[in-house]
Design goal:
Number of strands: 0
Radius of gyration: 19 Å
Largest sheet: none
Order of helices and strands: HHHHHHHHHH
Shape: globular
Strand content: under 5%
Number of helices: 10
Helix content: 55-70%
């Protein structure tokens, strides 16, 4: 019983954190990432020649799993902290947690919305998985590696990464030029919502206020923590990443066609 209370963090974690980039941290997240990649490749190759609805079933399962885990986490944290308003600090307003919205859209919607959501998950899922596992200095410096906070965070980030790779391997990504604007709009809308929430509740969604021990600290230190330049630089990095991803995808696609010809 004491072990269960310790794992879920009731009364606070008593164990000392092993530390960011410790062998425990790297072993744990590498195990998750290897499982993530293996499942995405195996299931993607198996379903690649099947119908869109058959391929979509895997995304439906992933969407339900990621949202169910996140809802369970929010409820538990509100109970654990004796704070019924604790959910305000668990909104899907981090780059990684936008997938809590876009992954269900990719799984359950139709038409251009589905196409744009699939592309968004494809573009940002794997990035979120890497940042949320190997780059999560704010988590692994504060909590023991094998605890509720880190296990749920690692699993949900890897579900996003799995979905991204699965979409790529199974051939579900559309990457149509007409949907690029929707992808940018999703990201910009999330950034605006995150910044407003940060100001209202004094938080750090999307890491728009500070780096908090993540690689964003590089940008924060580079601009001297400037309250305007730093969030603008972070958003600009997001937009540059989307542009680079689309540019690379289209370049590789063109070369593939040229080689085929």
């Amino acid at each position: 019983m004491n072990y269960i209370k310790e794992f879920f963090g009731f009364g606070g974690y008593q164990r000392e954190p092993e530390g960011y980039l410790s062998w425990q941290h790297l072993t744990f997240v590498t195990t998750l990432v290897v499982i993530m990649i293996a499942l995405a490749v195996v299931l993607g190759l198996r379903n690649r020649e099947r119908s869109m609805s058959a391929r979509n079933r895997v995304l439906i399962f992933a969407a339900i799993a990621i949202d169910a885990l996140e809802i369970f986490k929010i409820v538990l944290m509100c109970i654990r902290g004796h704070d019924p308003m604790g959910w305000l600090y668990e909104l899907p307003l981090f780059l990684c947690s936008i997938q809590l919205i876009t992954l269900p859209l990719a799984a359950f919607s139709k038409g251009r919305v589905k196409e744009a959501a699939l592309d968004f998950v494809f573009i940002f899922g794997i990035l979120g998985a890497i940042l949320g596992t190997y780059g999560a200095g704010q988590n692994y410096a504060c909590y023991p590696v094998l605890c509720f906070d880190n296990v749920v965070s690692g699993v949900t980030h890897c579900i996003s990464g799995f979905s991204s790779l699965y979409i790529a391997v199974s051939g579900m990504a559309s990457m149509k030029r007409k949907n690029i604007g929707i992808t940018f709009a999703i990201l910009c809308g999330a950034c605006i919502a995150a910044y407003v929430a940060n100001v209202l509740i004094d938080y750090n969604y999307m890491f728009l206020m500070r780096g908090d021990g993540t690689p964003y600290d590089i940008v924060y230190n580079w601009v001297g923590g400037h309250c305007v330049l730093y969030p603008c630089a972070v958003v600009l990095l997001f937009l540059l990443y989307i542009s680079a991803f689309y540019g690379t995808y289209f370049l590789l696609g063109r070369r593939k066609k040229e080689n085929a010809a």
